[in-house]
Design a protein that fits this description.
The chain is an alpha/beta fold. Helices cover 33% and strands 19% of the residues.
């Protein structure tokens, strides 16, 4: 994602790259970050590189993101967070930071995924009775968290539309004699393999029909395009914790 983001910035006439950060100890520190079409810039773990930046786009891991988040607070730099796998306590730290700097925090920056979330909200409210809900996701073999942050966000949106809490109705695994399916639950299934960028399908299974809503990502460019859109959204924005629904004008308040 770092390389994809750098290439996207290079192609954007209204944006300039001022730093490329990695966590301390990364073997990438010191290596060139930029293609030949851009001024030479090396990857660094020195957070002073944020001085003079307007916004940081962070697609790392929770520990790295939280380190960068604190540096952004200290420097007054906005931040776009596409990292997943945070604990509830870590999410609380991000929410607290939103009181000091503007933040866009989303488990998936894809415009298509965020439109899909809106469609899922509509579907869940319409199919609230008589339909079993299952969420299936697949990612590449290197992904370290499961279910994906996007799948969990889909579950949260659906549960919210039904007046439930995902923590109270999610089923993350089935094995052995499980008994009949509880109709109030939302099930998750996870696949990992190959170089799959990301696929998510939500199944609303009723009697005599099945509705499936699917999003497939075939390139990481969709995530970088959404992240740059989020970065532009934060320009001059007041401190706060924003979502991609704010960036895309999809928030309904319902």
């Amino acid at each position: 994602m770092g390389r994809t983001l750098i290439e996207a910035v290079a192609a954007a006439p209204d944006l300039a790259l001022c730093a490329a950060l990695e966590v301390p100890g990364s073997p990438l520190v010191g290596q060139s970050a930029t293609p030949s079409s851009m001024p030479a810039l090396r990857i660094t773990d020195d957070l002073c590189a944020l001085d003079g930046a307007d916004v940081l786009i962070d697609f790392t891991r929770p520990a790295g993101t939280l380190r960068h988040l604190q540096a952004c607070q200290n420097a007054g730099v906005a931040i776009v967070i596409g990292t997943t796998g945070f604990s509830e306590a870590e999410k609380g730290q991000i929410q607290d930071a939103g009181r000091h700097v503007p933040i866009v925090f989303a488990p998936n920056m894809s415009v298509g995924v965020n439109v899909t979330l809106r469609l899922l909200e509509i579907a869940a409210r319409t199919l609230a009775e008589g339909y079993d809900i299952e969420i299936l996701e697949m990612h590449h073999r290197h992904k370290i968290d499961a279910p994906s942050g996007t799948a969990l966000r889909m579950g949260e949106v659906i549960a919210g539309a039904l007046g439930r809490e995902l923590a109270d109705c999610a089923v993350y695994s089935r094995e052995g004699v499980t008994g009949e399916r509880d109709p109030s639950t939302i099930g998750f299934a996870v696949l990992r393999g190959g170089d799959c960028v990301g696929e998510h399908t939500v199944v609303f299974a009723g009697t005599g029909e099945r509705v499936e809503i699917t999003h497939r990502a075939t390139s990481r460019n969709t995530f970088s395009a959404g992240a740059l859109r989020a970065a532009r959204f934060l320009a001059g924005r007041a401190p706060g914790l924003y979502a991609m629904s704010d960036v895309l004008g999809l928030r309904t308040g319902g």
